[in-house]
Amino acid sequence: MGRADLGRLDRILQAVERAGLLRRRHRLLARAIDYADQSCGGTLQKVGEKGSTSFYVETITRGGVDPATGHGCLNGNVILIKSGDALAWGWIGEHKGQALSATAILARKP
């Protein structure tokens, strides 16, 4: 995973943490998304839910990846799993035939 991917992951995790409760996260994620520092954005659409797991499709509609720098945003799929007081977050996508993924476990600080 490159520096741009780690930076993007950090921004997404911060947004999810700021969202509060899982239900509020779902409403937040079902709307437009913006990665201002990457000059791109799009939508995150909820496509399914099973128990404590929710599935989303992230579609980049503005910007994308800058071929000169390799920085930017990619289409992908997001999975959120509520487990107790924690939230497992995963992103899966591909770029130029290479599969990419990022995961994190989020929990409130005591």
Could you explain the architecture of this structure?
It is a single chain. The chain has 110 residues and is α+β, with helices and mostly antiparallel strands. The protein has one domain (3-107). Helices cover 22% and strands 48% of the residues. It contains 2 helices and 6 strands. The chain has helices at 3-18, 22-29, and strands at residues 32-35, 40-50, 53-62, 76-83, 86-95, 98-107. Strands 1-2-3-4-5-6 form a 6-stranded antiparallel β-sheet. The radius of gyration is 14 Å and the shape is globular. Mean pLDDT is 78; it is low at 1-6 and 20-30.
Helix content: 10-25%
Decide which structural class fits the backbone. Answer: alpha+beta
Describe the global form.
Answer: globular
Tell me the major beta sheet.
Answer: 6 strands, antiparallel
Spatial order of the strands in the main sheet? 1-2-3-4-5-6
How large is the radius of gyration?
A: 14 Å
Please count the beta strands (DSSP E, at least 2 residues each): 6
What does the average pLDDT come to? Answer: 78
Poorly predicted runs are 1-6, 20-30
How many helical elements? 2
What is the beta-strand fraction? over 45%
**How far do the termini sit from each other?**
30 Å
Order of helices and strands: HHEEEEEE
Taken together, the total number of domains comes to: 1
